[in-house]
Amino acid sequence: MSEQLHHNREVTEKVFLKLSLASKITLARVLFIPLFLAVLLTNWPLLLFPYFELAYSLQPWLAALVFILIAATDAIDGHVARKRKEVTTFGKFIDPLADKLLVTAALLALVQMAVLPAWIAFIIVAREFIISGLRMVATANGGIIEVSGLGKLKTVLQSTAIVMFIVKDHTGILGIPSLPLIEQGVSLLAWAVMLAAVAITVVSLWDYYKKVSEFLNGPWTKAD
User: Fold this and answer.
1) How far apart are CA 47 and CA 32, in angstroms?
2) Which residues have CB under 8 Å from 209's CB, separation 6+?
């Protein structure tokens, strides 16, 4: 058993070393998602700073910062891949998957915290499932669909909305209470950005469907 585990570890290490730098950065984005969830959802201020009440006010802001840093690697790995000419098949697969996992994890966490209605998370996550299915059908029929401007705008709006929802109920920081007017303004802005993200999510799905529609006519079975 130990020999098998050792062999599996060696294989994993060899595969990782063969990955391009861009793919390693993308993979790191996936591996750091649990850290984001831990910072956002766990009661770490009580465990680490039981006598430092201000740590509680910093928790959502720290979680938002971790999310921003993880999401920022999307731009970094893309830049590295283009600059080093390391655009690979694995990179094309893992990059959108990493984005989907990060956004899905954040949305589900917000639903669990009763900050975000479940129907918004459902629309966004369902769109990603549908897009993944359409992409597989298009690829199986020889089609390659590049990410559109709407898709990029969707990602930016979703990420911005998620960050705002994480901190919108915690505008006060370091024990300094926030003014009610500021709290209401931040909350309204957060909802406006989130609803815009949902709208662009639906529109980008329709746009993607139109692009792959020519690949959806079959044939669904091989000829005899």
Assistant:
1) 21
2) 134
CA distances to 116, 119, 153, 154 from 200, rounded to whole Å, are: 18, 15, 8, 6
156 Cβ contact list (under 8 Å, min separation 6): none
Q: In this structure, what DSSP letter does residue 147 have? A: P
Tens-digit pLDDT profile for residues 60-96: 899 999 999 999 888 876 667 677 666 666 666 677 7
Q: Residues of the chain with pLDDT > 70: what percent?
A: 67
Task: Check: CB of residue 26 under 8 Å from CB of residue 94.
Answer: yes
Which position has the higher pLDDT, 104 or 24? 104
Per DSSP, the three-state class of 29 is helix
Neighbours of 110 (CB within 10 A): 21
99-150 pLDDT per residue, tens = 889 999 999 999 999 999 999 999 999 998 888 787 777 766 666 666 677 8
SS3 199: helix
Contact 23, 97 (CB under 8 A): no
Q: What is the dihedral of CA 202, 147, 24, 13, to 10 degrees?
A: 90
**Residues facing 173 on adjacent strands:** 176
Residues 66 and 42: beta-carbon distance below 8 Å: no
Provide DSSP, 48-70: H-TT-THHHHHHHHHHHHHHHHH
Structure tokens at 117: 């209605």
What is the H or E stretch that residue 208 is in? helix 180-212
